[in-house]
Amino acid sequence: MSSVAFETQRAALADVVAIPVTPFAEDGSVEQDTYRALLRRLLDGGITTLTPNGNTGEFYALTPEERRLVTELTIDEAGERAVVLVGVGHDIPTAVASARHARDLGARMVMVHQPVHPYVSQAGWVDYHRAVAEAVPELGVVPYIRNAQLTGARLAELADACPNVIGVKYAVPDAARFAAFARDAGLERFVWVAGLAEPYAPSYFSAGATGFTSGLVNVAPAVSVNMIEALRSGDYPAAMKVWEQIRRFEELRAANGSANNVTVVKEALASLGLCRREVRPPSRPLPEGERAEVAAIAAGWSI
């Protein structure tokens, strides 16, 4: 397929890429009606790109059946209102099966989670992503890069073999490294998504990103939309005003090696009466004493 065939997908990446939470019922199962309601809230808030089975969705704590369910619910609820970028990963056969499942349901893209393995060679990284991308040539493929060792030349090598690799979720917390990586890989060749969400979006946009991921968007879609609009118009002072608004919330999420990344988002949603606060191990709900601060932040955004 030519790059022209992926124009819709490329446009969808150059936006707020929402990572929905996966709400759990009292018995620990996926709370399907609540999940649909949270998706509708995102769609009604102007969000048009959704990533089910992302890290904010507790991808690694879901069973294979639950990951399929979340994919099915998202594609059904989104309909024509959003482009769905399904998170896939684990071993190659599992990632390929997930990608084909997403394709068969009508998804347009998959995001390939960083390979979870103690020993990742750069050539092996290419092999892993190539196996997934070649299995679904009609889908746009977006590697999720958290590996600071990976070079831009390796991404270019992957895309030479697989023209459906059209975008990158770059989540190494180093704006200078991102700027170099993007230029080594091909700045215009890929859509660059700031994979560390709103806190890093202004610095990454200044280096060539045109989209950013968000977990905060679950709580306050308008806040994330305000930031992308400011960044698109090149109004960095306005973007940094939004940055100041979200700074404390994101600091709470990032503390202790991002231990409470999902926890804080679900706590904010719980404070607004939108879903239960429960997360699965190895995450853990916030201690009672820290809940009030999160609730106050969320209440301030909803004014």
Query: Biggest sheet: strands, sense, closure?
Result: 8 strands, parallel
Number of strands: 8
Structural class: alpha/beta
Number of helices in the DSSP assignment = 12
Q: What radius of gyration results from the CA coordinates? A: 18 Å
Order of helices and strands: HEHEHEHEHEHEHEHEHHHH
Residue stretches low in confidence (pLDDT < 50, at least 5 long) are none
Overall 3D form: globular
How much helix, percentage-wise, in residues? 40-55%
Q: Strand arrangement, largest sheet?
A: 1-8-7-6-5-4-3-2
> β content, as a range?
5-15%
Mean pLDDT: 96
Amino-to-carboxy terminus distance: 46 Å
InterPro entries: Aldolase_TIM (IPR013785), DapA-like (IPR002220)
GO molecular function: 4-hydroxy-tetrahydrodipicolinate synthase activity; 5-dehydro-4-deoxyglucarate dehydratase activity; N-acetylneuraminate lyase activity
EC number: 4.1.3.3, 4.2.1.41, 4.3.3.7
Pfam families: DHDPS
Can you summarize this structure?
This protein is of the alpha/beta class and 303 residues long.
Topology:
Layout: H1 7-13, E1 16-18, H2 32-44, E2 49-50, H3 64-78, E3 83-88, H4 92-105, E4 109-112, H5 122-135, E5 140-145, H6 152-161, E6 167-170, H7 175-185, E7 191-194, H8 197-206, E8 211-214, H9 221-232, H10 236-258, H11 261-271, H12 288-301
Parallel strand pairs: 1-8, 2-3, 3-4, 4-5, 5-6, 6-7, 7-8
Give the tags.
single chain; about 300 residues; alpha/beta; globular; lyase; Dihydrodipicolinate synthase family protein; DapA-like; 4-hydroxy-tetrahydrodipicolinate synthase activity
